[in-house]
Amino acid sequence: MRQAGRSLPEYRELRGQGSLLDAVRDPAIAIEATCQPVRRYGVDAAILFSDIMVPLAATGFDVEIEPGKGPIVSNPIRTSSDLGRLRPFDPADAPYLTETVRGVVAELGVPLIGFAGAPFTLASYLVEGGPSRDHVRTKALMHTDEKTWFALCDYLAETTVTALRSQIEAGASAIQLFDSWSGTLSPPDYEHFALPSTKRIFEEIASFGVPRIIFGVGTGELLELMATSGAEVLGVDWRVPLDRAAGRVGPQIALQGNLDPALCVAGYEPAATAARLVLAAGKKAAAHIFNLGHGVLPETDPEVLRGLVELVHATSVDQRPGAR
Amino acid sequence: MRQAGRSLPEYRELRGQGSLLDAVRDPAIAIEATCQPVRRYGVDAAILFSDIMVPLAATGFDVEIEPGKGPIVSNPIRTSSDLGRLRPFDPADAPYLTETVRGVVAELGVPLIGFAGAPFTLASYLVEGGPSRDHVRTKALMHTDEKTWFALCDYLAETTVTALRSQIEAGASAIQLFDSWSGTLSPPDYEHFALPSTKRIFEEIASFGVPRIIFGVGTGELLELMATSGAEVLGVDWRVPLDRAAGRVGPQIALQGNLDPALCVAGYEPAATAARLVLAAGKKAAAHIFNLGHGVLPETDPEVLRGLVELVHATSVDQRPGAR
Question: Which residues of A touch B144 (CB under 8 A)?
Answer without folding.
Answer: 266-267, 270
